[in-house]
Specification:
It is a single chain. 60% of the residues lie in helices and 6% in strands. The longest helix has 29 residues. It has 465 residues and is mainly alpha-helical. The chain is built from 22 helices and five strands. A five-stranded parallel β-sheet has the order 2-3-1-4-5, sandwiched between helices. The protein folds into two domains: 232 residues, Rossmann fold (3-Layer(aba) Sandwich); 209 residues, Up-down Bundle (Butyryl-CoA Dehydrogenase, subunit A, domain 3). The structure holds adenosine-5'-diphosphate (ADP) and uridine-5'-diphosphate. Adenosine-5'-diphosphate binds next to helix 5 and helix 12.
C-alpha cells in the first residue's frame, strides 16, 4: 500500500535519520526538560472537554499534499474549527515562548517536535473553542504523537483523512508555496519526506486497520479534490441539506450521490452532543417547521396543506404527496410523525421491491452477467432495508432520549447509506447498458425506492435542530 512513497524516492536523501527517536524529537536534552508524566497535562478542564464528546478529524498527508488547502474548504462548507499543528508551533516560535529556538531548529531540520508540546497546544485550542467539530491538520505525525494525544486528551479521532500525493507533486507544491516558511526548501523537504515515510505512514496504517482512514487521491485541482472530500462529511450528517435545499427537480439525485457513494456506509462514528439545546428538543416534538402560520384550523385541509408544504422541500414532491397523502390524519402537522411515516412507507416499498426483484430474476431469462448484477442488487437492497429498519427504530425512540442530535445524525448516515446501496444497484445496471425488459423493470422499481429514501432524508433534514 505504501510502496508508492518508497518507489518514488529519488528526491529523498538515502541517508536515514540516525534513529527514529532522534527524528521524532530532535534532541534528548530538550525532550527531558518536558515532563512526560500524564498529570502535567491533565488539567481540570480535560474531563469536561471529553464530556463534550467532540467530533475530531485528523488530517494527514505528506508536506505539500494539500492538507491546509482542503481544511480551509472544509471549514467554509462544514464549519469545523481548523487547528494546524504546524501553525500552532510556528505561532509558539513567533511568540518567543520557552524552547522557541529548539522548536525552530526542529522544524528547519524537518524533525518532529516532542508530543508534550504539540498536544498541549492542540488541547488548549480545543478547550477554549466554542466549536465541537475539529479538524486537526498535520497531526499526529508519529505513533508517539498519536498515543500521547489519545492518552492525554482521552479521545480518538472519529475520522482520519489522508491526502495521498506523489512525492514529485508534493515537492513541487512546497517549493512554490511562497509563504516564507523556513522549511519550504529542497533540503528540508527531502528530510520531511523521509520522516513522513518512516514515522507518519505507520500512523496512517494504524487508522487504516481501525477502519477510520479515508484516503483521498490528492492529485488534481483543489476543487476536484474537495469534491472527493465533501461526501465524507456529508455522510456524517453535517451538510446533507445543501443538496436537498432546492425544490427543483433539476437537482438530480444521481449527481448528488456520485460523491456520496464512496463514503456513506459506516463512514464515521457520529458523536452525541450534550450541548444540544433544550429549546430545540422541545421544538422537535411540538411545533412544526412546515406549518404555515396562517393555517390554524385543525382540519384535514390544514393537514393537507402541511404535507404539501413539507413535500415541496423534497426532490420529488409529487411522489412525496402520493406516498403520504393517505396518512395525513396520522401525521397531522407533526414533523417527527411525518418523518417516521415517510421512513416506514419507504421501508415497506423497499421490502416489496426486494421480493419483486428476486421473483423477476427467477422468472426472467437472464444471462450470467445479468444474473450477477441482479444478485448484487438483491444484496444491496438487503443492506438498504437493514439501514432503513435501523433508522425507523431509532426515530421511534427519539422521544425521551438524551442523545437526540446523536441519534438524528446516525439516522441520516444510515439513510444515506441506504440511498447509496440503492443507487449502486441501478448504476450496476446502467454501466452495462443492459436493455433487457426484466432488467429495466428492476431498475425502475429501485429508482422509485431511491427517490422515496431521498425524500425521507430531505424531510429529516428539515427537522428543526
Ligand atoms: N490541488 C492542488 N494543486 C496544486 N497546488 C495545490 C493544490 N492544493 C494545494 N496546492 C498548493 O500547494 C501548496 C501546499 O499546499 P498546502 O495546503 O499548504 O499543503 P500542506 O498543508 O499539506 O502542506 C500551497 O501553495 C497550495 O496553494
Ligand atoms: O504535529 C506536528 C506538526 C508539525 N510539526 C513540525 O512542523 C513542521 C511543519 O508542519 P506543517 O504541518 O505546518 O507542514 P505541512 O505538512 O503543512 O507542510 C513539520 O515538518 C514538523 O517539523 C511537528 O513537529 N509536529
Amino acid at each position: 500500500m505504501w510502496r508508492r512513497v518508497t518507489s518514488l524516492s529519488p528526491v529523498i536523501s538515502t541517508s536515514k535519520p540516525a534513529s527514529l527517536d532522534q527524528a521524532a524529537s530532535g534532541f534528548k536534552i530538550w525532550r527531558s526538560s518536558f515532563s512526560t508524566e500524564t498529570p502535567t497535562l491533565v488539567k481540570d478542564g480535560t474531563t469536561s472537554f471529553k464530556e463534550r464528546n467532540p467530533f475530531i478529524t485528523f488530517v494527514l498527508g505528506g508536506p505539500g499534499s494539500g492538507k491546509g488547502t482542503q481544511c480551509q474548504k472544509i471549514v467554509e462548507t462544514f464549519g469545523f474549527k481548523h487547528l494546524s499543528a504546524g501553525e500552532l508551533l510556528r505561532r509558539e516560535i513567533d511568540s518567543n515562548s520557552e524552547h522557541w529556538s529548539q522548536m525552530l531548529n526542529t522544524i528547519k531540520e524537518g524533525r518532529i517536535v516532542p508530543s508534550e508540546v504539540t498536544v498541549r497546544l492542540i488541547q488548549q485550542e480545543m478547550e477554549s473553542s466554542d466549536s465541537n467539530k475539529f479538524l486537526i491538520d498535520g497531526f499526529p505525525r508519529t505513533e508517539e504523537n498519536r498515543i500521547a494525544f489519545e492518552q492525554l486528551i482521552g479521545l480518538e479521532p472519529n475520522v482520519v483523512l489522508f491526502f495521498d500525493c506523489p512525492e514529485e507533486e508534493m515537492v513541487k507544491r512546497v517549493l512554490n508555496r511562497n509563504q516564507g516558511r523556513v522549511d519550504d526548501n529542497i533540503d528540508t523537504v527531502k528530510k520531511r519526506l523521509k520522516v513522513f515515510e518512516i514515522l507518519n505512514l505507520p500512523v496512517i496504517d494504524y487508522y487504516s486497520k481501525r477502519g477510520k482512514l479515508r484516503k483521498i487521491n490528492a492529485v488534481g485541482t483543489e476543487d476536484e479534490i474537495f469534491e472527493k472530500v465533501r461526501p465524507i462529511f456529508s455522510a456524517c450528517g453535517y451538510q446533507f441539506l445543501y443538496a436537498f435545499d432546492s425544490n427543483t427537480d433539476s437537482v438530480k439525485l444521481k449527481s448528488f450521490l456520485k460523491g456520496v457513494k464512496l463514503s456513506a456506509k459506516g463512514l464515521c462514528k457520529l458523536h452525541s452532543d450534550k450541548h444540544f439545546s433544550a429549546s430545540r428538543i422541545k421544538l422537535l416534538f411540538s411545533a412544526s417547521g412546515f406549518t404555515d402560520a396562517t393555517t390554524t384550523k385543525n382540519s384535514s385541509e390544514t393537514y393537507t396543506n402541511y404535507l404539501k408544504k413539507a413535500c415541496n422541500s423534497t426532490l420529488y414532491p409529487q411522489l412525496c404527496l402520493e406516498s403520504l397523502s393517505s396518512y395525513t390524519s396520522t401525521i397531522k402537522t407533526n414533523d417527527l410523525k411525518l418523518c417516521s411515516k415517510a421512513l416506514s412507507v419507504t421501508l415497506k416499498a423497499a421490502s416489496n421491491t426486494s421480493k419483486l426483484v428476486t421473483n423477476l430474476s427467477k422468472g426472467g431469462n437472464l444471462s450470467k452477467t445479468e444474473a450477477g448484477i441482479v444478485q448484487d442488487c438483491i444484496d444491496e437492497m438487503g443492506d438498504s432495508i437493514d439501514m432503513l429498519k435501523q433508522s425507523l427504530k431509532a426515530l421511534g425512540s427519539l422521544n425521551g432520549s438524551d442523545h437526540i442530535q446523536f441519534q438524528i445524525s446516525n439516522i441520516k448516515t444510515w439513510m444515506s447509506a441506504a440511498l447509496t446501496d440503492e443507487t449502486t444497484c441501478t448504476d450496476g445496471i446502467d454501466e452495462r447498458k443492459i436493455s433487457d425488459e426484466v432488467m429495466r423493470k428492476i431498475r425502475k422499481t429501485i429508482v422509485n425506492i431511491a427517490m422515496l429514501t431521498s425524500n425521507a432524508l430531505a424531510l429529516l433534514n428539515k427537522l428543526p435542530y
